[in-house]
Specification:
The structure holds two protein chains of two kinds.
Chain A: E1 3-12, E2 15-25, E3 30-34, H1 41-49, E4 56-61, E5 64-65, E6 76-79, H2 91-101, H3 106-119, H4 135-147, E7 153-157, H5 165-182, E8 185-190, H6 193-199, E9 202-207, E10 210-215, H7 217-222, H8 227-232, E11 239-246, E12 249-252, E13 258-260, E14 272-277, E15 282-284, E16 290-300, E17 303-310, E18 313-320, E19 330-335, E20 340-344
Chain B: H1 2-48, E1 51-52, E2 63-64, H2 67-74, H3 76-108, H4 114-122, H5 129-140, H6 146-153, H7 165-193, H8 197-205, H9 210-238, H10 244-247, H11 261-271, H12 275-307
Antiparallel strand pairs in B: 1-2
Helix pairs in contact in B: 2-12, 3-7, 3-9, 3-11, 7-9, 8-9, 9-12, 11-12
Classes of the chains: A alpha+beta, B mainly alpha.
Amino acid sequence: MRVVLDHVTKRFADVTAVSEFSATLEDGELVSLLGPSGCGKSTLLNMLSGILPVSGGRIYFDDQDVTGMPPEKRGIGLVFQNYALYPHMTVMGNICFPLETQRVPKAERIERANEIARLVHVDMLMNRKPSELSGGQQQRVAIARALVKNPRLLLLDEPLSNLDARLRLEMREEIRRIQQRTGVTTIFVTHDQEEALSISDRIVLMKAGVLQQNDLPQSLYNEPANQFVADFLGNPPINNLPGTVEDGAFVAADGKARCALPMLAGVENGRNVNLSVRSESFVLDENGPMACEVTRVYQMGKEEMAYLTFGGTDFRAYIDSEEGLRKGDAVRLSLKRRGVFLFDRETGERIR
Amino acid sequence: MKKNKQKPDRELVDRSFLARIEPYLYLLPFFLGIAVFTLYPVVNVVLMSFKEDYSYLTREFSQWGLANYDKVLSDPKFAQAVGNTLKYVLLVVPISTLISVIVANLLNQKLRFSALFQTAYFLPMVTSVTAVGLAWKLMYNKNFGIINYILSFFGIDKIPWLENAAWSIPSLVIFGVWNILPFTIILLLSGLQNIDPQYYTAARVDGSGSLRIFLRITVPLLAPTIFLVCIVNTISCFKVFSELYPLFNGKPGPFYNLYTVVYYIRYAMMENRKYGVAAAAAIVLFGFIFVFTMIQRVVQSWMSARKR
């Protein structure tokens, strides 16, 4: 099912949690809603589920306007952050509960519950209570309960945040597998960029209730729309070198260090910018434009993580360990084409 | 060196001895109170119930025996008292529990003025039963009482709440329910507030209406609290006395028809000076409460076992 959000807005007493949010999610996609905590992604999810009414804008499922529709009519499956499995019911009871309200006959309920339980691999736990399950198993049951009524849209609210690191990896693969088997359009809320990058068809990145970028995972990383997107994605975080532009050259914050870069050709003089470079986009080059000093070097196997300084700003770069850098070395670097961006320092907007 | 080594060792022993008795010292004042005012009387009552022809003043008795129990169990007044008490328990406990579950649910909603409602419902808790009983006596008044006045709007004739033997049980039960509600509601409300609201959201997203959510989610999750409330209220209802006393001018009902077990105990002691009989009746009451509580516990464990 295709989901269209048209200028959706949510205002609480004096805060705007989601502002003029517009996006289209295609049928069968797994979309991550990504952003720091408090950015409005859970609010947006609750508006999609119908738990929270919108303050403005429309929501469409396919061609149907569902903006004012109550949650039970929307045909959604919802997986809560802490699963919210009914503690007094068995796994079977939990999975059957949504069908009970749809007045599905008992024999069919049990058949469908068993079928979905096999899909998420909890079919051997049907008679257990939630308290007798591990975190990962509870997660699977919660997904089964959300899927058993064949929802048009599956919503997952930070589903992995209560799991330990290993289970998190395992369950994210599982969610991907189950989503692809059922083909249900899925929205996955997370604040973890790695999670979003690894399982999504598409990532919607939010900040303070405002859509920042809605794109393919690799495009989000390789072509960030603004400073926030560039800062949010990537580990280690992107290096931001503040400075100004003078005659096609970048002048660092100390006003002395400068380097000429072809990408600065069209930028007007005196503009305050951030030269933002991913750590993997530096290359040691005797003739490179950046004269830097090495302040620290960490061995990381095949590569080294070097801490360098340019015009008074420290940054990190991956350097091939065969180069044998030492603390205090003066080196020259050039920049690759990929992973190098220029942002306006006031507005954060990308300068192309 | 040796001295230094020994000294802390001895300190350690001394301190651990002090540390061992310290908690008991803190408990001592409270324990003394319990011992003097609860444990000693309890033991004494048990002994007294077996002393025949016991005189409270001289502390003399003719012999050990079961004569007191024989008197209690063959006294038609006691049989009537047990009957009334059972009626009271079997009416007040279910009615008050049912009303409390509903009211607690309403109070648990995010309503406007909910603080006001909560205060109104909890007010009876801080009032004296006897004082409020006198107020109820006025409200129950056949000719001037507000209850009959309100009922007159619905075309209902004056009801002789306190003057008629048949109406005296309902009057007592209504007052008893009202009196027990606040405590019951507080317990149930705290039970409700322990239920994660996400279960309600989950059930709603799954398409459940309010009634289904109430029956399938709220009540099962509240069941432990409901059982607790039933047990506590059963115990307190078996001891019904202070509700009765002010309503009928200190008489057990208009025609001495509303003896309860505790009223019987008081009657045996204060009016008949038969302390042994009163003690025996108290032990029988204890037996009733014990049996009822056990039945409830067995039912509860059977039900929670069945749900698994």
